[in-house]
């Protein structure tokens, strides 16, 4: 999947996500927010000026969020991202109400909608994680940022003992080469391979 397809799943299929923010003391807060619009790989959501959530957004430029869909754990797909936001006021508000008609039941007229302001997630880095596939599948993505690697890799000094492969829950290590190669798209990031490596040549990015 490309980045736009992942964000489309987040905005259309999942839609309601949990956003994490912090207050002025650094204490974490979460709340459920709908992803209202996707345009040119930017996500848009809104909130009312009177909410404490709005105050927290205005005092910081970063958020983190996770959206989840599926009937149970083993059928679930999760999309998480961390990024920067900016308040764009009433811009795109009419478009948001057009594409999300249920909002008219909550804010039925122009007077009530005046209190709403739109936020744009303009830069982010995230991950698509699919437990319904065997082996599991994960994919990193970025929007207007450079990708920061995560996970584990095998460095020089590997002796090809295959101990890492034996303990890997997903068997996502290619042992046909030396050093062996961790298949990043299927790795759980559990770190067990690093713990058992006799040469201690497995590191985390």
TrEMBL record:
Q: Which GO terms describe its molecular function?
A: 4 iron, 4 sulfur cluster binding; metal ion binding
Q: Which cofactor does it need?
A: [4Fe-4S] cluster
Q: Key word Phosphoprotein present in the record?
A: no
Keywords per UniProt? 4Fe-4S, Iron, Iron-sulfur, Metal-binding
InterPro entries xref list: 4Fe4S_Fe-S-bd, 4Fe4S_Fe_S_CS, PSI_iron-sulfur_center, Pyridox_Oxase_N, Split_barrel_FMN-bd
Domain (4Fe-4S ferredoxin-type) ranges: 149-177, 178-205
Q: Gene3D superfamilies under this entry?
A: 3.30.70.20, Electron Transport, Fmn-binding Protein, Chain A
Task: Check the record and name the Pfam families matching this protein.
Answer: Fer4_7, PNPOx_N
Q: What does this protein do?
A: Ferredoxins are iron-sulfur proteins that transfer electrons in a wide variety of metabolic reactions.
Question: Per its record, how is this protein called by name?
Answer: (4Fe-4S)-binding protein
Native species: Faecalibacillus intestinalis
């Amino acid at each position: 999947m490309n980045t736009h397809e992942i964000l489309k799943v987040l905005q259309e299929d999942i839609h309601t996500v949990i956003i994490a923010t912090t207050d002025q003391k650094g204490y974490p807060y979460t709340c459920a927010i709908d992803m209202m619009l996707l345009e040119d790989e930017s996500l848009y959501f809104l909130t009312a000026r009177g909410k404490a959530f709005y105050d927290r957004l205005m005092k910081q430029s970063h958020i983190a969020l996770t959206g989840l869909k599926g009937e149970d754990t083993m059928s679930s797909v999760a999309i998480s991202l961390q990024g920067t936001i900016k308040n764009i006021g009433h811009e795109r508000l009419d478009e948001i109400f057009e594409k999300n008609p249920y909002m008219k039941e909550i804010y039925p007229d122009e007077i009530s909608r005046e209190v709403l302001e739109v936020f744009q997630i303009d830069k982010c880095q995230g991950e698509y994680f699919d437990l319904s596939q065997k082996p599991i599948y994960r994919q990193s993505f970025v929007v207007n940022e450079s990708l920061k690697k995560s996970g584990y890799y095998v460095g020089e000094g590997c002796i090809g003992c295959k101990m890492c492969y034996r303990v890997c829950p997903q068997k996502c290590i290619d042992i046909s080469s030396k050093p062996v190669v961790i298949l990043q798209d299927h790795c759980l990031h559990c770190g067990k391979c690093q713990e058992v490596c006799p040469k201690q040549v497995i590191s985390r990015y």
